[in-house]
Amino acid sequence: MKYFDLHCDTATECYQKGLGLSSNGLSVSLEQTGKYDRWAQVFAVWISGKLRGEAAFHYFQAVAADFKQKLLTDTGGPVLCRNGNDLKQADAAGKNMALLSIEGGAALGGELSHLGDVWKAGVRLMTLTWNGPNELGNGCMTPGADGLSRFGKEVVREMGELGMVVDVSHLSEKGFWDVAHTLQGPFVATHSDSKAIENHPRNLTDDQFREIVRRGGLVGLNLFAPFAGSGGTIPSLLKHAEHFLHLGGEKTVAIGADFDGCTLSAEIRGIGDMGLLYNAMCGRFGKEIADDIFYNNAFRFFTKHLN
Ligand SMILES: [Zn+2]
């Protein structure tokens, strides 16, 4: 099977704990991915709520540099891709792929010019907020959450110009609709489940999901138990997938497991166990849909939209 995952915090964990990518005791390590015919992973630089201003930008630079160094030195590392052609070439050559993202637009330090800097550093997706507020707007766990700030809207417009993918996971509901009104093209929710199945502020309403479908975006299923519900087991994840499929999400649903950013259930202990979910999806939805969810939807999206 091929596996494309929209979100993990492994690069940040490796930086903070001084670990490598190959064999590190984390949920994502290169030694676990050899079993997949192909593996593509979005690696996020996560910006803590405590980091703001230039300190946040410098933290991004440090984690990104550390990660890129490890991609070159650690055995079996994926190839860092910056556009759709890079992805197509790596896939055709049988190589694993990495994309770099930011989780928390606070990384820009409130400066629009830093968007160009992170783009040059290879960032191709950005989650606008984490759970709390930042210069761009309010996350979904901000009390009385408002939407995007004026700066946040400027950033979204500029991301549209650059071709950097806007990620609305963690964003407040009002912020979501601000993105929808500000941006012309598709956007994604890299690691969010369905609110109709599990009523959690981090999950998407049916209207939000339909809007992402309408635009040709992506939604990555998150393994974290409080979002998935029912202990985050495989049957609970299938319920979210099934609901999204009923809303017309055959070409929208993907996986954003949130490895190394969440606690896992007993069934899936790390990236090497994702074949269990894949097999369960093949059984429930058929191989074609399981392949779309696990790889094809995300691969098609990024090869089309990253230029
Ligand atoms: Zn997250």
Question: Strands, helices and their partners?
Answer:
Blueprint: E1 2-8, H1 10-17, E2 38-46, H2 54-73, E3 79-80, H3 84-92, E4 97-103, H4 113-120, E5 123-127, E6 133-134, E7 137-138, H5 150-162, E8 165-167, H6 173-182, E9 188-189, H7 206-214, E10 218-221, H8 225-228, H9 234-246, E11 253-255, H10 274-285, H11 287-305
Helix pairs in contact: 1-2, 3-11, 9-10, 10-11
Bound molecules: zinc ion.
Word description of this protein:
- The structure is a single chain.
- Strands 1, 2, 3, 4, 5 and 8 form a six-stranded parallel beta sheet that branches. The chain has a three-stranded parallel beta sheet with strand order 9-10-11.
- The protein has helices at residues 10-17, 54-73, 84-92, 113-120, 150-162, 173-182, 206-214, 225-228, 234-246, 274-285, 287-305, and strands at residues 2-8, 38-46, 79-80, 97-103, 123-127, 133-134, 137-138, 165-167, 188-189, 218-221, 253-255.
- The radius of gyration is 18 Å and the shape is globular.
- It has one domain (2-16, 35-305): Metal-dependent hydrolases (TIM Barrel).
- The chain has 307 residues and is of the alpha/beta class.
- 41% of the residues lie in helices and 15% in strands.
- Helix 3 (84-92) packs across helix 11 (287-305) and helix 10 packs across helix 11.
- The structure holds zinc ion.
- Total helices: the number is 11
Percent helix, as a range, is 40-55%
Q: Radius of gyration, rounded? A: 18 Å
Mean pLDDT over the full residue set: 97
Number of structural units classed as domains: 1
Outline type: globular
Report strand %. Answer: 5-15%
CATH evolutionary superfamily: Metal-dependent hydrolases
Low-confidence stretches: none
Q: What would you call the structural class?
A: alpha/beta
Span between N and C termini? 26 Å
Bound molecules: zinc ion
**CATH class division:** Alpha Beta
* CATH architecture classification name: Alpha-Beta Barrel
Largest β sheet strand count, sense and barrel closure: 6 strands, parallel
Under CATH, the topology can be stated as: TIM Barrel
- Topology as H/E string? EHEHEHEHEEEHEHEHEHHEHH
Number of strands: 11
